């Protein structure tokens, strides 16, 4: 993409009302624009990151055997009356009346709707196990939306729902998501720690939050350092195999959010492994048995002919929140430092003297070669000052910067800078693409 | 995807309340489920088609130089008070109050919001031309939603918005979208005819609807047959070049919807070229000048230093509606006949005797080869009867069917059926992939 044709409204100043670094940087880099309290437009740069995260989540859900569909944003209130949550949910639920005065709502979550889809079609244990997911916008009418996309009102969530005949089956489904989550977050460059969690208003017995550590985290968290050093299960994991080992390998170590914290258990960890930090919740998984299937009569016939309520779990990932979460974890004093996998572009190409025939030609050719090699490139072909170009490129944090100017051209070289390490090397044109190609 | 692990709730009977063939087929094939009047869940098969259409639209918008972002579904009422449309829009606009009693609405379209984004950042003609688009769910509270996804209340629309300094510039932007639309619809296997249209509530002077012909179309349309036989501009079109020839080549021929129909002009066409038919609107483009930029004060500085309201246009494609539209245009008595480009899977592989060791092995190997070749395959590994498998595969309309059974295996062959032509050939295993690989 040529910057002269792109829409990248960066600004020099941090807006006064942004309290945390990710919010500041997302506004400064023109990733989002607020349209109302907790409601954002995803500007082109931000939208690219959002799509990359969404795609990683999709691939890891698919790998774990979940099947994608899409439920609508608006729902009928009647379904929520069946589950009993319509009155319970409180003011966070955005309640709406349509022109025929029917009670509707903007879905804050989808347990009721997916249970209704399920019971309409699935009648036999032979159709199980099943895990259905979607990535759809939700609305929760927070009293005080804040921290940019970290606590917005309209937000993008991936929510998966598992259906099994037995409790053991439901546990297997839970383990699959547990492992898929670790892989997904790892692919985004994050170390997410599963922490035993309170089950809250969704209810149920088994539940973990996935927390990334960041100074600006919303809550205090406590864990064994061993968990931070552990590799994810890996993309070659056999999801049809026994996953209990992968889960127990982690759950044997202490990890808890503030609400679930046990001082004595934490004190029993060797002192050099006690991590006390702030954390950001990026995922949450629940096993809640028959909490919804019973009142909503989602029953299946078992092998013995008996009809039983289906065992369910739900599994959320905060897709739009992750954009902020990744920035909290990946930035320096000059701006964002994107992990390769979610960077809006992989390379930033800087033309030091736009308008100069030789520079334009060399840049144009390299730009075409990069695009032909499938490397997403933002080509700064503007006539801004060199200093402004460098600062902007650092600010938006693309993994690689390629700088072409008259001096380098005389020597036939390109300056290649790695945004994360700051390392700069001069390379002949022919070696540039190999250098910046992702492993 | 193995059917035994998929979620494909097909049904034998056409539901009584479905009035048109696409709605019937979408319900029978388990593509969508209605969750309320005009509100649908996109089940896995339907969602795959929706995503393919969305991706074609994205690629053709990008090719024409438009830039993708994402605006939220909910908007502040105040923006619509600025443009004057808040009171004008009527009951089709879903009006909402949040917990702080602020007036909001579920966006039926986005002229106001994009104008607000634009005026926040763009101050100079040097930042123009600009075309920003998104693909987002909209809500229009129709009195009588009907025809399935063809006239739903919650629907997915691609809407692009162009910004130019001058009327001439705006015309160039309009021409780009005109050509991009023809390419996009052509890629979906559709012949869309641009018809001069009434500008309606969006206002403005220059406007075309893009109409596909189908017996169940919502309105009568009239055109010169020449338009139906014309090739699209083509994917190698230079969007930076002069596109007026491409546009005039088409607009010189008569084409009009009922509202704009001119009997005398139509009668002047040679009789064998007079087409009088029913049509479905799948796209609509408008040039509306300063209708929104003036009241909302979206002004840019021109080369002479004067501030002038920006010239705008908007360009819609009914993405979710197209799923129904394509089925209306592409089906036979046995079910859907998907064009390759939007088919949910490219190949359906039928195991005639699931459980038979040789059949399972041969099917499993071919399935893996197809997936490795990047060919999306639905593998029917269920133990349903052969007749049921054939009927289901015809119903869901994948372009190719591969049938493997004990008899064929003895001869080392696979039966390959083309869903559209009905042609069946027997091929050795080694030749199957080449046969079904898209050109």
From TrEMBL, chains A, B:
Its EC number is 6.1.1.15. Keywords: Aminoacyl-tRNA synthetase, ATP-binding, Cytoplasm, Ligase, Nucleotide-binding, Protein biosynthesis. It is an enzyme of class 6 (ligase). Pfam families: HGTP_anticodon (PF03129), tRNA-synt_2b (PF00587). Residues 38-339 form the Aminoacyl-transfer RNA synthetases class-II family profile domain. It comes from the Bacteria. It is found in: Cytoplasm. Its main location: cytoplasm. One of its GO terms (biological process) is prolyl-tRNA aminoacylation. It catalyses: tRNA(Pro) + L-proline + ATP = L-prolyl-tRNA(Pro) + AMP + diphosphate. One of its GO terms (molecular function) is proline-tRNA ligase activity. One of its GO terms (cellular component) is cytosol. Catalyzes the attachment of proline to tRNA(Pro) in a two-step reaction: proline is first activated by ATP to form Pro-AMP and then transferred to the acceptor end of tRNA(Pro). Belongs to the class-II aminoacyl-tRNA synthetase family. ProS type 2 subfamily. Homodimer. This is Proline--tRNA ligase. It comes from Hyphomonas jannaschiana VP2.
């Amino acid at each position: 993409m040529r910057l002269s044709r792109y829409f990248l409204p960066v600004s020099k100043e941090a807006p006064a009302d942004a309290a945390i670094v990710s919010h500041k940087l997302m506004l400064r880099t023109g990733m989002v624009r607020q349209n109302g309290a907790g409601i954002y437009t995803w500007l082109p740069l931000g939208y690219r990151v959002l799509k990359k995260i969404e795609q990683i989540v999709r691939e890891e859900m698919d790998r774990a055997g979940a099947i994608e569909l899409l439920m609508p944003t608006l729902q009928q209130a009647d379904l929520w009356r069946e589950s009993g949550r319509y009155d319970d949910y409180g003011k966070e639920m955005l309640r709406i009346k349509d022109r025929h005065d029917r009670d509707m709502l903007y879905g804050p979550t989808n347990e009721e709707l997916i249970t209704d889809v399920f019971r309409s079609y699935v009648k036999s244990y032979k159709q199980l196990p099943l895990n259905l997911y979607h990535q759809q916008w939700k609305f929760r009418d927070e009293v005080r939306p804040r921290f940019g996309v970290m606590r917005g009102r309209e937000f993008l969530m991936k929510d998966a729902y598992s259906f099994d005949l037995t409790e053991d089956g439901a546990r297997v489904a839970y383990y699959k998501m547990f492992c898929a989550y670790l892989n997904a977050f790892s692919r985004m460059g994050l170390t997410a720690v599963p922490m035993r969690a309170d089950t809250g208003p969704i209810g149920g017995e088994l539940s973990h939050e996935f927390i990334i550590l960041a100074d600006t985290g919303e809550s205090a968290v406590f864990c064994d350092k061993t968990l931070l050093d552990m590799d994810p299960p890996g993309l070659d994991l056999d999801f049809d195999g026994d996953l209990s080992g992968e889960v127990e390998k982690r759950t044997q170590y202490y990890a808890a959010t503030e609400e679930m914290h046990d001082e004595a258990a934490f004190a029993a960890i060797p002192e050099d492994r006690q991590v006390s930090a702030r954390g950001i919740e990026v995922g949450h998984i629940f096993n809640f048995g028959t909490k919804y299937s019973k009142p909503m009569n989602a029953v299946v016939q078992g092998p013995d002919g008996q009809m039983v309520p289906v065992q369910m779990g739900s599994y959320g990932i905060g897709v739009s929140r992750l954009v902020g979460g990744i920035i909290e974890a990946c930035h320096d004093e000059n701006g964002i430092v994107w992990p390769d996998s979610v960077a809006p572009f992989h390379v930033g190409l800087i033309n030091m003297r736009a308008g100069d025939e030789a520079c334009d030609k060399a840049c144009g050719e390299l730009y075409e070669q990069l695009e032909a090699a499938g490397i997403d490139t933002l080509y700064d072909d503007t006539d801004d000052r060199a200093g402004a170009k460098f600062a902007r490129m650092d600010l938006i944090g693309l993994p690689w910067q390629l700088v072409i100017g008259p001096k380098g051209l005389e020597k036939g070289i390109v300056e290649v800078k790695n945004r994360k390490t700051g390392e700069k090397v001069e390379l002949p044109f022919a070696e540039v693409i190999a250098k910046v190609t992702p492993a």
